Amino acid sequence: MLIQDDIFGEAPKVIERGNAGPTLLPQVTAIVGSLSGGIDGFAALIHGLNAVKAAGIDITTIPVVLWHACLSKMDWVDEAHDYTDEVLGRQHTALGLGVRSSWQTVYHLSGGETKTGFPSAEMQQLHCVRDGDVYYGPMESDDPAVMPDLLSLADVYRKGNPPTSGMRYCTKFMKTAGFQWWLRRNKSMLGPLPLVIRGERKAESYQREARLEEWGWALGTKQWDAAVWLPCIDWKFHQSAQLVYDTGGVAAIHPCYFWQSSLNEEDTLAAMLDPNHDERGRPRCSCVVCIFSNLKHIMIAQSKVPYIVDPHLDRARGFETKWGKTWKQNQAMPLALN
């Protein structure tokens, strides 16, 4: 299993470093691709791996980890399929190297209260959903104090306050916290200078355009750390889509892009690859009822795959009824079709 609890063991040698940047590429000792199943993350990993190879690193001789933060019940799943896990498998096959590693961050109430009046909570565990070829599946719990996904976190820990554009605790708690925990406990395997490759792009939104930086550090510590690189930060969506399509064909593209489009599959693909298509307002590969998703895209997906979308809408509307608040800012969830 790709987790080594060596927090009290001997840490790898710390390199001399200043600002993260391309001069670090020849020193990379491991590569961790942060993947959601979406186009941007996979394109960034492909492009980043090519750059590391060009810097003189034989990427077949260092650890390459395809790391995924499992969203559990918030993801594109039904009773028979975990569609995100399946597309990540096809992306792995198209890439032809590396090992898959999928994790679910689970929280529980710790019995206290924060200064702002919310119940105190802490990470209960980082549950292994997939370790290489072995799929364990997401953790579920009937314990009301356990929060295995975002909606339960908003319900129990945040007392009915969903994430907003100004307070994106979904990313902080369900992705970043677990990933940093995993990084720290895999120092021995990752070596002195691991490189984390992520797929964010400035063109995705005005907010990202203002805050994103191409290089940084994962932990921000003075000791061991991992460099973070956004190699496609200045790309447009059609560039990422073209690279993914050229590498793995339609099979490497998450079906949620097609489910959220009013076009047929052929025309949806053509729109993805069209350099003149409007950059913003495209369907997202994220939680089915992501607070940033366009409600129109959710309803289109509902019309095409109601057996996937309806359970998400039922949960979101149950949250809205309980707390008297909308899950998406100022937009109530539509009713389930079935």
Structural features, described:
- With about 350 residues, this protein is an alpha/beta fold.
- The protein has a single domain, classed as Rossmann fold (3-Layer(aba) Sandwich).
- Helix content is about 35%, strand content about 15%.
- It contains eleven helices and nine strands.
- Strands 1, 2, 3, 4, 5, 6, 7, 8 and 9 form a nine-stranded mixed β-sheet that branches.
- A hairpin with a 5-residue loop joins strand 3 (about 100-115) and strand 4 (about 120-130).
- Helix 1 (about 40-55) packs across helix 7 (about 235-250) and helix 10 packs across helix 11.
- The longest helix has 18 residues, at about 305-325.
- The chain starts with about 30 loop residues before the first strand and ends in a 15-residue tail after the last helix.
- Mean pLDDT is about 90; it is low at about 1-10.
The SSE order reads EHEHEEEEHHHEHEEHHHHH
Terminal Cα span:
40 Å
Structural class: alpha/beta
Shape: globular
Mean pLDDT: 90
| Top-tier CATH class | Alpha Beta
CATH architecture: 3-Layer(aba) Sandwich
Radius of gyration: 20 Å
Q: What's the SSE blueprint?
A:
Layout: E1 30-35, H1 39-54, E2 64-69, H2 83-95, E3 99-113, E4 119-131, E5 134-135, E6 146-147, H3 150-157, H4 169-184, H5 187-190, E7 194-197, H6 206-211, E8 215-217, E9 227-229, H7 237-248, H8 256-259, H9 265-273, H10 295-304, H11 306-323
Parallel strand pairs: 1-2, 1-7, 2-3, 7-9
Antiparallel strand pairs: 3-4, 3-6, 4-5, 8-9
